[in-house]
Hints:
Blueprint: E1 30-32, E2 35-40, E3 46-47, H1 49-62, E4 67-69, E5 75-80, H2 85-94, H3 102-107, E6 110-112, H4 122-134, E7 147-150, E8 164-169, E9 172-177, E10 182-186, H5 191-203, E11 215-216, E12 230-232, E13 235-240, E14 244-245, H6 247-256, E15 259-261, E16 266-270, E17 281-282, E18 292-294, H7 309-315, E19 325-328, E20 340-346, E21 349-356, E22 364-367, H8 372-380, H9 392-395
Parallel strand pairs: 6-7, 7-8, 18-19, 19-20
Antiparallel strand pairs: 1-2, 2-5, 3-15, 4-5, 4-14, 8-9, 9-10, 10-11, 12-13, 13-16, 13-17, 15-16, 20-21, 21-22
Helix pairs in contact: 1-2, 1-6, 4-5
Amino acid sequence: xxxxxxxxxxxxxxxxxxxxxxxxxxxxxxxxxxxxxxxxxxxxxxxxxxxxxxxxxxxxxxxxxxxxxxxxxxxxxxxxxxxxxxxxxxxxxxxxxxxxxxxxxxxxxxxxxxxxxxxxxxxxxxxxxxxxxxxxxxxxxxxxxxxxxxxxxxxxxxxxxxxxxxxxxxxxxxxxxxxxxxxxxxxxxxxxxxxxxxxxxxxxxxxxxxxxxxxxxxxxxxxxxxxxxxxxxxxxxxxxxxxxxxxxxxxxxxxxxxxxxxxxxxxxxxxxxxxxxxxxxxxxxxxxxxxxxxxxxxxxxxxxxxxxxxxxxxxxxxxxxxxxxxxxxxxxxxxxxxxxxxxxxxxxxxxxxxxxxxxxxxxxxxxxxxxxxxxxxxxxxxxxxxxxxxxxxxxxxxxx
Length: 400
Ligand code: SF4
């Protein structure tokens, strides 16, 4: 196992962290209620065993609480003290997990399908795209501008937002935008230049004619099946409840294979044919915790108006097999960007959105925690009993 450098190389000073409008990185951490958030963006969405083991060591030394798997297929450490950041950064640099500068780090917002196979061009395209985004003259992209490289046999990232995506259809590679009905047919040689041209054009407001090679085409379907823990192309998927991963569990997974990150708060263990039971990991596709998502709530975010994960845990068994419940600490909805049944904490209680994002107008306002079960049953058209109500004291809901 490769260890972080014992004598860290000098690390660049981090700019002061702030809170709004951008995603954290390793070079530019973000302040949160429980300390700094330091996000690691693995190259091509993949961690070697040595990198994963090294991150586990660094997390044990410098982070408070578990690691987090993000919906951009990254891994982040929470609760990092400002004084620890230089040593943590040096450790990540020794593992080859840090970009040249904060601007390049922000631009390298690439989600890669975890279901790639050797020879399908996915890894080569993801690496070429990362190089293009780090090159001098790369476009200054808006914060949160994202790419998807989804070139496995079947698109897996259609439900994962991306401004520009490289994917494969029945005829070969294509480059397209999520919100502009354009498409260019591509080869492994010109897919990245086409993606960069499209990114430049979108970043300039898409006002002029589209870049050469792009033709009108229907918008891509933004639907996709949510994978489940178990066997998957390339290995075995394991999920982490609420995306939280104990450093010890990461270290154990690193002993089993290289790891691919996913946007579904799961890891794919390359080449694995089973999964060990490890604390916090979900390996049973029927586990109710797979049907709830929640941000850190008041446990870790200053903007939260109430607790989230204890409530989601208490309500999980009410969610039908096809359903998904999102419990958000505020209307920003960091944990889930797609419409679903959503509860939003407010100073007066929980607002219920029957089908929408956390920012959508609520269908019911200021509900008490002990009334939520029956409201949710109505949202899903199921029945419930009084014993299904979550324990009021466990959710620490403000009284109405
Ligand atoms: S959604 Fe959750 S994590 Fe995001 S700002 Fe609101 S309370 Fe914080």
